[in-house]
Sequence to fold (84 residues):
Amino acid sequence: MDGRAGLTKGGTMNAQRYARHNEYADTIGRLFEETPKAVFAAIAVSALTGGGERLAQARAVILSEWRLLWQNGIVPQKPPGVAR
Fold:
C-alpha cells in the first residue's frame, strides 16, 4: 500500500479488501466480521447523538462524519451527495 486508502503501489484499487475494511475496522479485528451491520448502526447513532438525546440529528451527523472519514482517506466510499 502507498498510504492512500485502497490503492496499491501501482495505483490500482484493492477493492476486495477495502470494500469491507479500513484501519478502524482492522483495529477491532474479528469483532468487525462478527458484528451485524444493524448493531454497528445502533452504536454509531448512539455515539454520535449523545446516547440518542439528539436522535433527530442522526442522519445529518452520520453523513457529516462519513464525509470527514472519506476526505481523510479512512474510507474509500463516497458519501451520498458528493460529486463523482
Observations:
- The radius of gyration is 14 Å.
- The CA atoms of residues 67 and 83 lie 12 Å apart.
